[in-house]
Amino acid sequence: MGGKPSLSVVGLGKLGACSASCFAAKGFNVIGVDINRGFVDAINRGSAPVKEPRLQEMIDLSKGRLRATMDFEEAVKGSGITFLIVPTPSRSDGHFSDKYLKDALTHLAAAFGKSDKKYHIFVITSTVSPGTTERELVPLIESVSGRKLGRDFGVSYNPEFIALGSVITDFLNPDMVLIGGSSEQVCDELEKVYQAVCENKPYMAKMSVASAEVTKISLNSFVTMKISFANTLANICGQIPGTNIDHITKALGADKRVSPHYLKGGLSFGGPCFPRDNRAFAAFAKEYGVEASLATATDRINQVQTELLAELIAKQTPNGDRNVVGVLGLAYKPNTPVIEESPGIKLIERLLERNLEVIAYDPIATESARVHFEDRILYASSARDCFQSATICVLTTQCGEFKEIDQSYIAHDPTTIIDCWRLLDGSKFGKGVNYLALGSFNGGK
Length: 445
Ligand SMILES: NC(=O)c1ccc[n+]([C@@H]2O[C@H](COP(=O)([O-])OP(=O)(O)OC[C@H]3O[C@@H](n4cnc5c(N)ncnc54)[C@H](O)[C@@H]3O)[C@@H](O)[C@H]2O)c1
Known about the structure:
It is built from 15 helices and 14 strands. By secondary structure, the protein is an alpha/beta fold. Nicotinamide-adenine-dinucleotide binds near residues 10, 14 and 160.
């Protein structure tokens, strides 16, 4: 392939829309494919199909190089490399479902089989259970297209390590690009694509497809283990006078063997990837006869963390007290409306089980929470509004807006603030405020 190959991206959701727009913004001609007409129309109108910071900026920069279609044939004919970024939801046994991947690949392989194209590269970006690509997906492409791996097409497993809310920045500046390839040439083709797209010079981790599948899932499992370790430390600090979780994790993180990232004791991890990737790691290890005890312990610690917070809140609401609990932060983290496996949402469920009244606020996730809870809770229009109704306010995400909370927000005497991420300076509040920072001794009151 001389020059920049044309690319196609199947699945224009939270990750796919961002990948497609970044490729196009960096000079590739990109055809997006989705079965959701609304998303296809949005891309063709030049608007972002999903909410994500900087996505619109990338679409604007792509200047006519990005278009979308519902026609798989058009995508295969018009591109040399197709990225598949469709959902792979968790099954009840912890493994990822490959149903959507197989649906999309069936259409793509049929189009490839009918075409007179000599070669095509299929890139699996969706998260899959290790073994899926070679065991399930390659045979599917071969049988539907009538073509042969190696001779007629190449396959790559190339997952992204992005976080919602910073997908574009993460995509353009990765620490590492993980490229599993069915051959060295496939890895090299993808390396060239990423060299043109990345704004930094990341480590290109080129390896076999099977190794890349294991790498993807073990990285997320390792990171969640780190988070659960920091949360355990925060719980310990809550019981020992004179300790400060942030001093401890800062020191631990300064050691190169540990690193400071994802090492801030606080609330449980959530979102669409971390919890399920970690459970999938345990499930796949078990399939191969290995007991992944670290992964199962990580998950257990994560479940308990929200329960402990609910207990702490309940201790602040003695029997018969008509307290309203304000939960500030409903998304699983700041800058996203996604509430999947969100600690704030899980906390509210625990509080409702205890018959506590809840008012909730999030700068952008309130509508998602409303769909989930309907009229079982109250909704505040601002953080200040939340303090007007609630006598106990819990800050569950590291949302920048919450850092502005000061004495002027306080509407009740007494008011309890539970600050899960230590965003506020407790000493700046008056006598009527009971400030509890998770991870420090007073949090265990
Ligand atoms: N969102 C993240 O933070 C993130 C991070 C890393 C990896 N991933 C992985 O990326 C994949 C996609 O995740 P997402 O969050 O973008 O999902 P999403 O649900 O936001 O988007 C998926 C898109 O695929 C489309 N789609 C479904 N079936 C299709 C088909 N047969 N043909 C064409 N389009 C189809 C849907 O209409 C939707 O627009 C998943 O495997 C996920 O695990 C996501």
